[in-house]
Design goal:
The protein is an alpha/beta fold. It is about 40% helix and about 15% strand.
Length: about 425
Protein backbone atom coordinates (compact mmCIF):
# COMPACT_ATOMS: atom_id res chain seq x y z
CA UNK A 1 0.00 0.00 0.00
CA UNK A 2 1.20 3.51 -0.81
CA UNK A 3 2.46 5.83 1.90
CA UNK A 4 1.30 9.46 2.17
CA UNK A 5 4.63 10.68 0.82
CA UNK A 6 4.34 8.47 -2.25
CA UNK A 7 0.93 9.79 -3.29
CA UNK A 8 0.72 11.55 -6.64
CA UNK A 9 -2.79 12.94 -6.62
CA UNK A 10 -5.36 13.68 -9.31
CA UNK A 11 -8.86 15.12 -8.87
CA UNK A 12 -11.25 14.12 -11.66
CA UNK A 13 -13.97 16.72 -12.22
CA UNK A 14 -13.45 20.37 -11.27
CA UNK A 15 -16.95 21.53 -10.47
CA UNK A 16 -18.50 22.69 -7.20
CA UNK A 17 -17.07 19.68 -5.37
CA UNK A 18 -13.80 18.89 -7.12
CA UNK A 19 -12.27 22.33 -7.42
CA UNK A 20 -12.40 23.33 -3.72
CA UNK A 21 -10.95 19.92 -2.84
CA UNK A 22 -8.16 20.17 -5.43
CA UNK A 23 -7.33 23.70 -4.30
CA UNK A 24 -6.94 22.64 -0.67
CA UNK A 25 -4.72 19.70 -1.56
CA UNK A 26 -2.76 21.96 -3.91
CA UNK A 27 -1.73 24.16 -0.99
CA UNK A 28 0.42 21.37 0.46
CA UNK A 29 1.17 18.93 -2.40
CA UNK A 30 1.26 18.59 -6.17
CA UNK A 31 -2.17 17.86 -7.64
CA UNK A 32 -3.43 17.41 -11.18
CA UNK A 33 -6.92 18.80 -11.66
CA UNK A 34 -8.64 17.10 -14.60
CA UNK A 35 -11.86 18.12 -16.33
CA UNK A 36 -13.21 17.23 -19.78
CA UNK A 37 -14.40 20.82 -20.29
CA UNK A 38 -11.51 22.66 -21.94
CA UNK A 39 -13.24 26.00 -21.39
CA UNK A 40 -13.35 25.30 -17.67
CA UNK A 41 -9.63 24.42 -17.69
CA UNK A 42 -8.76 27.61 -19.60
CA UNK A 43 -10.69 29.80 -17.14
CA UNK A 44 -9.01 28.16 -14.13
CA UNK A 45 -5.59 28.60 -15.70
CA UNK A 46 -6.41 32.28 -16.02
CA UNK A 47 -7.14 32.32 -12.29
CA UNK A 48 -10.95 32.52 -12.10
CA UNK A 49 -13.63 30.09 -10.90
CA UNK A 50 -16.99 30.75 -12.56
CA UNK A 51 -18.85 28.84 -9.83
CA UNK A 52 -17.50 31.38 -7.27
CA UNK A 53 -16.80 28.56 -4.81
CA UNK A 54 -13.12 29.46 -4.83
CA UNK A 55 -11.82 33.03 -4.94
CA UNK A 56 -9.11 34.20 -7.31
CA UNK A 57 -6.82 34.67 -4.29
CA UNK A 58 -7.39 31.08 -3.16
CA UNK A 59 -6.57 29.80 -6.64
CA UNK A 60 -3.24 31.63 -6.46
CA UNK A 61 -2.49 30.11 -3.04
CA UNK A 62 -2.85 26.60 -4.45
CA UNK A 63 0.65 26.55 -5.92
CA UNK A 64 0.79 22.76 -6.35
CA UNK A 65 -2.38 22.55 -8.48
CA UNK A 66 -2.14 22.26 -12.25
CA UNK A 67 -5.08 21.91 -14.67
CA UNK A 68 -5.55 19.67 -17.67
CA UNK A 69 -8.17 18.27 -20.03
CA UNK A 70 -5.69 15.73 -21.40
CA UNK A 71 -6.27 12.32 -19.83
CA UNK A 72 -2.75 11.15 -20.69
CA UNK A 73 -1.47 13.58 -18.03
CA UNK A 74 -3.09 11.31 -15.44
CA UNK A 75 -0.55 8.56 -16.09
CA UNK A 76 1.84 10.22 -13.65
CA UNK A 77 -0.66 9.81 -10.78
CA UNK A 78 -1.37 6.91 -8.44
CA UNK A 79 -4.34 8.19 -6.39
CA UNK A 80 -7.44 9.48 -8.16
CA UNK A 81 -10.35 11.27 -6.48
CA UNK A 82 -13.53 11.25 -8.59
CA UNK A 83 -15.86 14.22 -8.08
CA UNK A 84 -18.11 14.13 -11.14
CA UNK A 85 -21.89 14.82 -11.05
CA UNK A 86 -24.41 12.03 -10.46
CA UNK A 87 -27.73 13.40 -11.76
CA UNK A 88 -31.06 11.76 -12.44
CA UNK A 89 -32.64 11.37 -15.88
CA UNK A 90 -36.05 12.51 -17.09
CA UNK A 91 -37.60 9.40 -15.52
CA UNK A 92 -35.99 10.21 -12.14
CA UNK A 93 -33.62 7.28 -12.43
CA UNK A 94 -29.92 7.54 -11.48
CA UNK A 95 -27.70 8.56 -14.37
CA UNK A 96 -24.25 7.09 -13.74
CA UNK A 97 -22.92 8.10 -17.15
CA UNK A 98 -20.42 10.72 -15.86
CA UNK A 99 -19.24 8.29 -13.16
CA UNK A 100 -18.77 5.41 -15.60
CA UNK A 101 -16.92 7.59 -18.11
CA UNK A 102 -14.63 8.90 -15.38
CA UNK A 103 -13.96 5.29 -14.36
CA UNK A 104 -13.14 4.42 -17.96
CA UNK A 105 -10.70 7.33 -18.16
CA UNK A 106 -8.97 6.25 -14.95
CA UNK A 107 -9.01 2.57 -15.94
CA UNK A 108 -6.93 3.37 -19.02
CA UNK A 109 -4.11 4.78 -16.87
CA UNK A 110 -4.52 2.61 -13.76
CA UNK A 111 -1.37 0.87 -12.52
CA UNK A 112 -0.34 -1.69 -9.94
CA UNK A 113 -0.92 -0.35 -6.41
CA UNK A 114 -3.08 2.63 -7.45
CA UNK A 115 -6.07 3.83 -5.41
CA UNK A 116 -9.33 5.29 -6.77
CA UNK A 117 -11.50 7.28 -4.34
CA UNK A 118 -15.05 8.23 -5.25
CA UNK A 119 -16.83 11.27 -3.78
CA UNK A 120 -19.88 11.41 -6.07
CA UNK A 121 -23.23 10.65 -4.44
CA UNK A 122 -24.39 7.13 -5.30
CA UNK A 123 -26.61 4.37 -3.91
CA UNK A 124 -25.06 1.80 -1.58
CA UNK A 125 -23.00 -0.67 -3.62
CA UNK A 126 -22.39 1.52 -6.67
CA UNK A 127 -18.65 1.93 -6.11
CA UNK A 128 -17.92 -1.79 -5.94
CA UNK A 129 -20.73 -3.03 -8.19
CA UNK A 130 -20.77 -0.40 -10.95
CA UNK A 131 -17.45 1.48 -10.92
CA UNK A 132 -14.89 -1.16 -9.94
CA UNK A 133 -15.83 -3.55 -12.82
CA UNK A 134 -15.19 -0.68 -15.25
CA UNK A 135 -11.79 -0.05 -13.68
CA UNK A 136 -10.97 -3.76 -13.98
CA UNK A 137 -12.15 -3.93 -17.59
CA UNK A 138 -10.14 -0.98 -18.84
CA UNK A 139 -7.01 -1.63 -16.79
CA UNK A 140 -6.83 -5.43 -16.93
CA UNK A 141 -6.06 -5.34 -13.19
CA UNK A 142 -7.76 -7.13 -10.30
CA UNK A 143 -9.61 -5.26 -7.55
CA UNK A 144 -8.13 -5.46 -4.05
CA UNK A 145 -5.12 -7.28 -5.46
CA UNK A 146 -3.64 -4.93 -8.04
CA UNK A 147 -5.56 -1.73 -7.20
CA UNK A 148 -7.82 -0.48 -4.41
CA UNK A 149 -10.84 1.78 -3.97
CA UNK A 150 -12.22 4.16 -1.41
CA UNK A 151 -15.32 6.25 -0.91
CA UNK A 152 -15.53 9.60 0.87
CA UNK A 153 -18.81 11.38 0.21
CA UNK A 154 -18.75 15.07 -0.62
CA UNK A 155 -20.50 17.48 1.72
CA UNK A 156 -20.05 20.71 -0.20
CA UNK A 157 -22.80 23.30 0.30
CA UNK A 158 -22.68 25.64 -2.73
CA UNK A 159 -22.54 29.33 -1.82
CA UNK A 160 -21.80 28.61 1.85
CA UNK A 161 -18.73 30.62 2.87
CA UNK A 162 -18.80 29.37 6.45
CA UNK A 163 -18.94 25.60 5.96
CA UNK A 164 -16.05 24.92 3.60
CA UNK A 165 -14.43 21.67 2.52
CA UNK A 166 -11.84 21.83 5.32
CA UNK A 167 -14.31 22.70 8.09
CA UNK A 168 -16.85 19.94 7.40
CA UNK A 169 -16.17 16.57 9.01
CA UNK A 170 -15.29 13.99 6.36
CA UNK A 171 -16.55 10.42 6.21
CA UNK A 172 -13.93 8.08 4.71
CA UNK A 173 -13.73 4.40 3.77
CA UNK A 174 -11.63 1.91 1.84
CA UNK A 175 -11.89 -1.48 0.17
CA UNK A 176 -9.64 -3.07 2.81
CA UNK A 177 -8.15 -1.98 6.13
CA UNK A 178 -4.89 -0.63 4.71
CA UNK A 179 -6.70 1.29 1.98
CA UNK A 180 -9.18 2.72 4.51
CA UNK A 181 -6.26 3.91 6.64
CA UNK A 182 -4.56 5.54 3.66
CA UNK A 183 -7.75 7.29 2.48
CA UNK A 184 -8.43 8.58 5.98
CA UNK A 185 -4.85 9.78 6.43
CA UNK A 186 -4.90 11.57 3.07
CA UNK A 187 -8.02 13.56 3.91
CA UNK A 188 -6.78 14.34 7.42
CA UNK A 189 -3.94 16.33 5.84
CA UNK A 190 -6.46 19.01 4.80
CA UNK A 191 -9.68 18.48 6.83
CA UNK A 192 -9.32 20.55 10.00
CA UNK A 193 -12.75 19.39 11.23
CA UNK A 194 -11.51 15.80 11.37
CA UNK A 195 -12.59 12.57 9.73
CA UNK A 196 -14.83 9.60 10.52
CA UNK A 197 -13.73 6.22 9.20
CA UNK A 198 -16.82 4.24 8.16
CA UNK A 199 -16.94 0.47 8.55
CA UNK A 200 -17.11 -0.11 4.79
CA UNK A 201 -17.57 1.59 1.44
CA UNK A 202 -21.27 0.64 1.42
CA UNK A 203 -21.78 2.18 4.87
CA UNK A 204 -20.18 5.42 3.68
CA UNK A 205 -22.32 5.44 0.52
CA UNK A 206 -25.47 4.83 2.54
CA UNK A 207 -24.58 7.52 5.08
CA UNK A 208 -24.26 10.10 2.32
CA UNK A 209 -27.50 9.27 0.58
CA UNK A 210 -29.58 9.37 3.77
CA UNK A 211 -28.19 12.76 4.86
CA UNK A 212 -30.12 14.50 2.11
CA UNK A 213 -33.05 12.07 2.16
CA UNK A 214 -33.63 13.08 5.78
CA UNK A 215 -33.60 16.78 4.86
CA UNK A 216 -35.92 16.12 1.92
CA UNK A 217 -38.49 14.43 4.15
CA UNK A 218 -38.31 17.15 6.78
CA UNK A 219 -38.94 19.81 4.14
CA UNK A 220 -41.77 17.72 2.65
CA UNK A 221 -43.45 17.68 6.06
CA UNK A 222 -43.19 21.47 6.36
CA UNK A 223 -44.45 21.88 2.78
CA UNK A 224 -47.48 19.74 3.60
CA UNK A 225 -48.11 21.76 6.75
CA UNK A 226 -47.97 24.92 4.62
CA UNK A 227 -50.64 23.52 2.29
CA UNK A 228 -52.86 22.73 5.28
CA UNK A 229 -52.34 26.07 7.01
CA UNK A 230 -52.94 27.98 3.76
CA UNK A 231 -56.34 26.30 3.47
CA UNK A 232 -57.05 27.30 7.06
CA UNK A 233 -55.96 30.91 6.50
CA UNK A 234 -53.10 30.60 8.99
CA UNK A 235 -49.68 32.17 8.37
CA UNK A 236 -47.22 29.25 8.16
CA UNK A 237 -44.19 31.32 9.14
CA UNK A 238 -46.00 32.55 12.25
CA UNK A 239 -46.75 28.95 13.20
CA UNK A 240 -43.14 27.88 12.65
CA UNK A 241 -41.81 30.79 14.69
CA UNK A 242 -44.07 29.85 17.57
CA UNK A 243 -43.20 26.15 17.39
CA UNK A 244 -39.53 27.06 17.06
CA UNK A 245 -39.47 28.30 20.64
CA UNK A 246 -39.27 24.63 21.73
CA UNK A 247 -35.63 23.61 22.08
CA UNK A 248 -35.80 20.53 19.86
CA UNK A 249 -38.08 21.81 17.08
CA UNK A 250 -36.19 21.62 13.77
CA UNK A 251 -35.98 24.96 11.89
CA UNK A 252 -37.09 23.86 8.42
CA UNK A 253 -39.08 26.14 6.10
CA UNK A 254 -41.41 25.38 3.18
CA UNK A 255 -40.33 25.97 -0.39
CA UNK A 256 -38.97 24.57 -3.61
CA UNK A 257 -36.61 21.62 -3.21
CA UNK A 258 -34.07 21.48 -6.01
CA UNK A 259 -30.31 21.43 -6.30
CA UNK A 260 -27.75 18.72 -6.80
CA UNK A 261 -28.38 16.92 -3.49
CA UNK A 262 -31.73 17.13 -1.73
CA UNK A 263 -33.85 16.94 -4.87
CA UNK A 264 -31.74 14.13 -6.38
CA UNK A 265 -30.15 11.88 -3.75
CA UNK A 266 -33.39 10.26 -2.49
CA UNK A 267 -33.99 8.85 -5.96
CA UNK A 268 -30.65 7.01 -5.76
CA UNK A 269 -31.76 5.32 -2.57
CA UNK A 270 -35.26 4.50 -3.81
CA UNK A 271 -33.82 3.10 -7.06
CA UNK A 272 -31.60 0.72 -5.11
CA UNK A 273 -34.41 -0.20 -2.74
CA UNK A 274 -36.73 -1.08 -5.64
CA UNK A 275 -33.98 -3.12 -7.31
CA UNK A 276 -33.86 -5.40 -4.25
CA UNK A 277 -37.63 -5.74 -4.06
CA UNK A 278 -38.65 -3.07 -1.56
CA UNK A 279 -40.95 -0.21 -2.49
CA UNK A 280 -40.14 2.81 -0.28
CA UNK A 281 -43.37 4.51 0.72
CA UNK A 282 -42.33 7.49 2.85
CA UNK A 283 -39.33 8.61 0.81
CA UNK A 284 -41.23 8.63 -2.49
CA UNK A 285 -44.23 10.34 -0.90
CA UNK A 286 -41.93 13.14 0.25
CA UNK A 287 -40.39 13.39 -3.20
CA UNK A 288 -43.81 13.60 -4.89
CA UNK A 289 -44.93 16.35 -2.56
CA UNK A 290 -41.76 18.40 -2.95
CA UNK A 291 -41.80 17.97 -6.72
CA UNK A 292 -45.38 19.29 -6.81
CA UNK A 293 -44.65 22.61 -5.10
CA UNK A 294 -44.02 24.56 -8.30
CA UNK A 295 -47.49 23.76 -9.60
CA UNK A 296 -49.00 24.63 -6.21
CA UNK A 297 -47.30 28.03 -6.16
CA UNK A 298 -48.69 28.88 -9.59
CA UNK A 299 -52.19 27.72 -8.68
CA UNK A 300 -52.17 30.00 -5.63
CA UNK A 301 -50.92 32.91 -7.69
CA UNK A 302 -53.50 32.45 -10.45
CA UNK A 303 -56.35 32.19 -7.93
CA UNK A 304 -55.41 35.49 -6.33
CA UNK A 305 -54.98 37.17 -9.72
CA UNK A 306 -58.50 36.05 -10.67
CA UNK A 307 -59.90 37.32 -7.36
CA UNK A 308 -58.32 40.70 -8.03
CA UNK A 309 -59.68 40.71 -11.60
CA UNK A 310 -56.20 40.62 -13.12
CA UNK A 311 -56.51 39.01 -16.55
CA UNK A 312 -54.44 35.81 -16.50
CA UNK A 313 -54.24 34.99 -20.22
CA UNK A 314 -51.38 37.08 -21.61
CA UNK A 315 -50.39 38.45 -18.20
CA UNK A 316 -46.74 39.28 -17.48
CA UNK A 317 -45.02 37.79 -14.45
CA UNK A 318 -41.56 38.59 -13.13
CA UNK A 319 -39.68 35.77 -11.41
CA UNK A 320 -36.88 37.02 -9.19
CA UNK A 321 -34.33 34.22 -8.88
CA UNK A 322 -33.47 31.19 -11.00
CA UNK A 323 -30.68 29.44 -9.06
CA UNK A 324 -31.59 26.56 -6.77
CA UNK A 325 -30.48 28.52 -3.69
CA UNK A 326 -29.47 31.99 -2.61
CA UNK A 327 -26.18 33.77 -3.25
CA UNK A 328 -24.65 31.27 -5.65
CA UNK A 329 -24.81 30.73 -9.45
CA UNK A 330 -25.72 27.03 -9.26
CA UNK A 331 -28.56 26.18 -11.65
CA UNK A 332 -28.49 22.41 -11.20
CA UNK A 333 -31.98 20.94 -10.83
CA UNK A 334 -33.50 24.30 -9.95
CA UNK A 335 -37.22 23.96 -9.31
CA UNK A 336 -37.86 27.56 -10.31
CA UNK A 337 -38.06 26.12 -13.81
CA UNK A 338 -41.20 24.23 -12.75
CA UNK A 339 -42.85 27.57 -11.95
CA UNK A 340 -41.80 29.01 -15.31
CA UNK A 341 -43.24 26.05 -17.21
CA UNK A 342 -46.47 26.04 -15.20
CA UNK A 343 -47.01 29.77 -15.77
CA UNK A 344 -46.47 29.29 -19.50
CA UNK A 345 -49.24 26.66 -19.47
CA UNK A 346 -51.59 29.55 -18.59
CA UNK A 347 -50.24 31.53 -21.58
CA UNK A 348 -48.50 33.90 -19.16
CA UNK A 349 -45.45 35.83 -20.37
CA UNK A 350 -42.57 35.16 -17.96
CA UNK A 351 -39.46 37.25 -17.37
CA UNK A 352 -36.72 35.83 -15.16
CA UNK A 353 -34.30 38.12 -13.33
CA UNK A 354 -31.26 36.72 -11.54
CA UNK A 355 -27.99 38.67 -11.26
CA UNK A 356 -26.14 35.51 -10.21
CA UNK A 357 -26.70 33.33 -13.26
CA UNK A 358 -24.74 32.95 -16.47
CA UNK A 359 -26.97 33.80 -19.43
CA UNK A 360 -25.15 31.23 -21.55
CA UNK A 361 -25.64 28.48 -18.98
CA UNK A 362 -29.29 29.38 -18.42
CA UNK A 363 -30.01 29.29 -22.13
CA UNK A 364 -28.13 26.01 -22.56
CA UNK A 365 -29.69 24.20 -19.61
CA UNK A 366 -33.27 25.48 -19.70
CA UNK A 367 -33.76 27.63 -22.79
CA UNK A 368 -34.34 30.64 -20.53
CA UNK A 369 -32.76 34.01 -21.33
CA UNK A 370 -32.79 36.04 -18.10
CA UNK A 371 -33.64 39.70 -18.34
CA UNK A 372 -30.79 42.01 -17.38
CA UNK A 373 -33.04 44.66 -15.86
CA UNK A 374 -36.75 44.23 -15.09
CA UNK A 375 -39.06 46.82 -16.60
CA UNK A 376 -40.75 49.09 -14.06
CA UNK A 377 -44.53 49.06 -13.81
CA UNK A 378 -44.93 46.26 -16.35
CA UNK A 379 -45.80 43.13 -14.39
CA UNK A 380 -49.11 41.71 -13.23
CA UNK A 381 -47.29 39.62 -10.63
CA UNK A 382 -43.85 39.36 -9.07
CA UNK A 383 -42.62 36.12 -7.47
CA UNK A 384 -39.63 36.17 -5.12
CA UNK A 385 -38.27 32.67 -5.65
CA UNK A 386 -34.66 32.94 -4.39
CA UNK A 387 -33.40 34.86 -1.35
CA UNK A 388 -30.41 36.55 -2.98
CA UNK A 389 -28.88 39.33 -0.89
CA UNK A 390 -29.35 41.71 -3.82
CA UNK A 391 -33.12 41.18 -3.61
CA UNK A 392 -33.12 41.80 0.13
CA UNK A 393 -31.19 45.01 -0.45
CA UNK A 394 -33.75 46.23 -2.98
CA UNK A 395 -36.51 46.44 -0.38
CA UNK A 396 -40.23 46.12 -0.89
CA UNK A 397 -40.74 49.55 -2.49
CA UNK A 398 -38.25 48.81 -5.29
CA UNK A 399 -39.60 45.28 -5.80
CA UNK A 400 -43.18 46.58 -5.91
CA UNK A 401 -42.13 49.17 -8.50
CA UNK A 402 -41.70 46.40 -11.06
CA UNK A 403 -45.43 45.67 -10.83
CA UNK A 404 -48.35 47.48 -12.39
CA UNK A 405 -50.64 49.62 -10.23
CA UNK A 406 -52.60 46.42 -9.53
CA UNK A 407 -50.35 43.40 -9.12
CA UNK A 408 -49.65 40.42 -6.85
CA UNK A 409 -46.41 40.00 -4.91
CA UNK A 410 -45.70 36.37 -3.93
CA UNK A 411 -42.88 35.96 -1.42
CA UNK A 412 -41.76 32.33 -1.46
CA UNK A 413 -38.67 32.90 0.68
CA UNK A 414 -39.97 35.10 3.50
CA UNK A 415 -37.70 37.95 2.35
CA UNK A 416 -40.28 40.48 3.45
CA UNK A 417 -42.44 40.90 6.55
CA UNK A 418 -45.80 39.18 6.07
CA UNK A 419 -47.74 42.44 5.74
CA UNK A 420 -45.58 43.57 2.79
CA UNK A 421 -46.45 40.69 0.46
CA UNK A 422 -49.76 39.41 -0.92
CA UNK A 423 -48.92 35.71 -0.81
CA UNK A 424 -46.54 33.45 1.11
CA UNK A 425 -46.16 29.71 1.36
Amino acid sequence: MLSLNEIKLAVIGLGYVGLPLAVEFGKTRDVIGFDINQGRIDALRQGHDSTLEVSDAELKESTGLTYTANSSDLQACNVYIVTVPTPIDEYKQPDLTPLIRASETIGKVLKQGDVVIYESTVYPGATEEDCVPVLEKFSGLKFNKDFFAGYSPERINPGDKEHRVTTIKKVTSGSNRDCADLVDSLYRTIITAGTFKAASIKVAEAAKVIENTQRDLNIALINELALIFNKMGIDTEAVLEAAGTKWNFLPFRPGLVGGHCIGVDPYYLTHKAQSIGYHPEIILAGRRLNDSMGAYVVSQLVKLMVKRRIHVDGARVLIMGLTFKENCPDLRNTKVVDIVKELQEYNIIVDVFDPWVSVVESEHEYGITPTQEPAHGQYDAVILTVAHQQFKDLGVEKIRSFGKAEHVLYDLKYLLPSEQSDLRL
